[in-house]
Prior knowledge:
The complex is a heterodimer of chains A (387) and B (303). Chain A has 387 residues and is α/β, with parallel strands linked by helices. Chain A has 2 domains: 2-244, Thiamin diphosphate (ThDP)-binding fold, Pyr/PP domains (Rossmann fold, 3-Layer(aba) Sandwich); 252-385, Rossmann fold, CATH 3.40.50. Chain A is built from 12 helices and 16 strands. In chain A, the strands form 3 sheets. In chain A, strands 3-2-4-5-7-6-13 form a 7-stranded mixed sheet, with helices on both faces. In chain A, strands 10-12-11-14-15-16 form a 6-stranded mixed sheet, sandwiched between helices. Chain A has a two-stranded antiparallel sheet with strand order 1-8. In chain A, helix 3 (57-69) runs parallel beside helix 4 (80-95), helix 6 (138-153) packs across helix 8 and helix 10 (301-307) crosses helix 11. Chain A is globular, with a radius of gyration of 21 Å. An 8-stranded mixed sheet of chain B has the order 3-2-4-5-9-8-10-11, sandwiched between helices. Chain B is α/β, with parallel strands linked by helices and 303 residues long. In chain B, 54% of the residues are buried. The longest helix of chain B has 18 residues, at 278-295. In chain B, strand 8 (179-184), helix 7 (188-200) and strand 9 (205-210) form a beta-alpha-beta unit. The interface between A and B is large, with 43 and 49 residues. Bound molecules: thiamine diphosphate, iron/sulfur cluster (SF4) and magnesium ion.
Amino acid sequence: MLQITEGSHAVAEAVKLCRPQVVSAYPITPQTHIVERLAEMVADGDLNGEYICVESEFSALSSCVGASAAGSRVYSATTSQGLAFMAEVVFNAAGMRLPIVMTIANRALGAPLNIWNDQQDSIFLRDSGWMQIYGEDAQEAMDLHFIAYKLAERHDVLLPCFVCLDGFIVSHTFEPVDIPSQKEIDEFLPAFNPLHRLDAKNPMSFGMYATPDCYQEFRYEINAAMIRAKAAYREIAAEFKAKFGRDYTGLVEGYRLEDAETAIVAMGSICGTAKDAIDEMRDAGEKVGLLKIRSFRPFPSEEVRTALKGVKNIAVIEKNISIGSRMLGAVGLEVKDAVYKDSPNIFSYVGGLGGRDIRKRDIKQIVQWAKEGRNDCFFGLREELLK
Amino acid sequence: MTGNTEKENVSVDYFESGHRACGGCGPALAGKLIARAAGPNTIIVASTGCMEVFSTPYPETAWKTPWIHSLFQNAAAVASGVEASLKRQGRDEKVIVIAGDGATFDIGMLCISGMFERGHDVTYICYDNEAYMNTGIQRSGATPFDASTTTSPAGKLSNGNSRPKKDIPAILAAHGSPYVATTSIATPKDLMDKVKRALSIKGPCYIQVHAPCCTGWGFDGCKTMELGRLALNSGLWVNYEMVNGVVEKVKKVKRIPVDDYLKAQKRFRHLYRPQENKDEIAKIQAIADSNAQKYGIDIPVKK
Ligand SMILES: Cc1ncc(C[n+]2csc(CCOP(=O)(O)OP(=O)(O)O)c2C)c(N)n1
Ligand code: SF4
Ligand SMILES: [Mg+2]
C-alpha cells in the first residue's frame, strides 16, 4: 500500500516488520526520528521487543553484541559522531560474526561540528567487516532493511550490515513508500536462527583471544564471508524482486549507460539528481550515464568493470574525503581499481560535504571536467573563504 | 567459539584448572569460587584483562558455562544486551559480569552507570587486584594510596600512587542498586554466599572481590590467601554488605597494624627502604583507622 511517509518513519516501519527482539540505540541527529518512532512502537505494543534506552552509542552497539550473541535479532541506528564513538565495537561485532543490522543516517564528522549529510561516517569504517549498502530514496532505504537482515543472518555470511541513507535528504523527506504487510515480510524473512548462541544447555566461549598462530585465519574467514555475501545478496534481492516487484538485484545499477562515453559514479540520494542531470544532458546530445553503487562493502569490482566497459571518462562523486590520498575520494580508489585494465580516465570529485547542496549544474560541470581530463579535485568550493 | 565437549561432569567447578594464570593468582581463585557459587545456569560476560586472557586462549577455554568477552570497557553493556535477549526469549539463565578493577573503576564507568541506572537483572562482579595487571601493573582507580606501579612508580619525588582508592561500591549504591557487597578470596565462603545472594536478588547487584596478585604486588604465590587475610585484618580491606544503600553486615576483625600488610609486598617496599617513611605509613594507617570507624570493624577488646 502506498503511503506518504517520512524516510525515517519508513525505516522504522521496516524495522518493525523485521521483528527485532532487541532494539538498542542512542539519539543523534538526523537518526532521531527512526529511534523515536521505534520507541513509540514499543510503548504502544506494536513492536514486541525490548527497547534498551542506553546512555551512549558505545553501549548501544555493545548491548547489541550481547543480545545477538544470546540469540536475538537486534537492531540499532546511528550516524556520524555516534558511529565514531562506537567504532571499537563496530570492529568487534564483525569479528564476532554477529549479524547485527544498523541504520546509518549518513552525516558529516566534526570538527567543525556539522549535522548535515555526507558519507564520511560509514566510509571511515569500510575496513571493519560490516557490509554497507546505500539506499537512494525512502523506498529503497526501507526495502534494503529486509534484504539486510536476511543477508546478514545467512549462515554462509554472518556479517553485520549498515543500511545507509543520506541524513535529512532521505531521512527527513516525505515520499510515497510502498510498505509491505507483516505477512509478506514474515514469508520473506524467517525468524532468526543463530548458528551459535550463548546457551547454558550448550555452553560455548565467545570472543576469546587469538595468538599469532591463529588470528590471521579469523581475518581471512571474515573476508571470505564478505566475498560470499555478493552472491548471497544477489540471490536474496532476486527473491525480493520476485515477491515484491522492486528490483535491487544489482550491487550496482546503471542508468543510461548504454553507449555512454562519460559516466558519473555515485552512492545514495545524489543518484536522483544525477539522473535528472543526465536526462537533460542526453537531450542535449551528450553521451552520458550513471553508475549507482548500491553496495560499498562488499565492493562489487566485477560489476563495476562490466558496467563501465567502453566508457572513456569516469567522474566519481565523493561525499567523503580520504585525507592525504592523492585521489581524494575513497569510492574513486575502489572504482579505479575495478576498471584500471580498461584504462579509462577516472577522477574523484569531492563535494557536497557537510550538507552542501549538489545541484544539477554541479553534476554537469563534473561531466565536463571529466571529459577535459581535469584531475581529482573538490567541486563547489567557495574560493572566497580560502583566502 | 569453541564448544565444550564434556557433558555433565560430577565436578562442581565450572571454571576448570589448566588455564594460564600465574601460580597463586588471586583472580583465578575468585573466578573458580564465583563459577562454583553461580552454578551451570549462568552466562558470564568478561572484560579484557588477566582473567579473560589466561582463561580463554583460542581454541581452549576454562569456562564450562557460556562465556562472552567483547572489549575492555563494555562488559556491563554487553551484559545488558544478554539480559534483555534472555528476557525476550523467556529464558532463565543468570547473567554475571566478571571484570577487572581497571575495567570497572576506570574505563567501563559509562557502561556500568548505564546498566545500573536502567536496572538490568545482572550481577556485576569486579575482581579487584588493584591495578592493570594484564598490561604490566599500571595503576588504576583501585590502586591503593602509595602503591608503586609502573605508571605510579615510587621515585625521588614520588611515594607511589598519590590518590586513595575510589569508592565504587558507594557510587553503585547511589545508583539505587539493591545489593552491593565487598568480599575477598581470603573468605571463600563469604564470597560464595554473596554471589548466591546477589543472584537471588532482582536488579543490578555489585560485588567487589579483593583478589591479591602475586606478580603485580610482589609476593610469593603461596601467600595469596595470607595477603588477603592481612588486608582484612589491617582494615585496609573491609568485607561488608549494603542492602538498598544501607551497610548491614560487616566482617569484624582484631586489627593488626598496616605495617604487617605493607611489608609483605614489594609494591610498598619504598616505604621501608632505604629507611622507614613514618609519615607515609601513618597516612596509610589513618586510612585503615578511618575504615574501621566508618564500618565499625573493630572487635571490642575485653577489659
Ligand atoms: C580501549 C582499550 N584500552 C586499553 C586496553 C589495554 N588493556 C587491556 S587489559 C588492560 C588492563 C586490565 O586491567 P584490569 O581491568 O584491572 O584487569 P587485570 O588485567 O588487572 O586483571 C588494559 C589497559 C584495551 N584492551 N582496550
Ligand atoms: S598477573 Fe596477577 S592477576 Fe594476572 S595472572 Fe598473574 S597473578 Fe593473576
Ligand atoms: Mg586489575
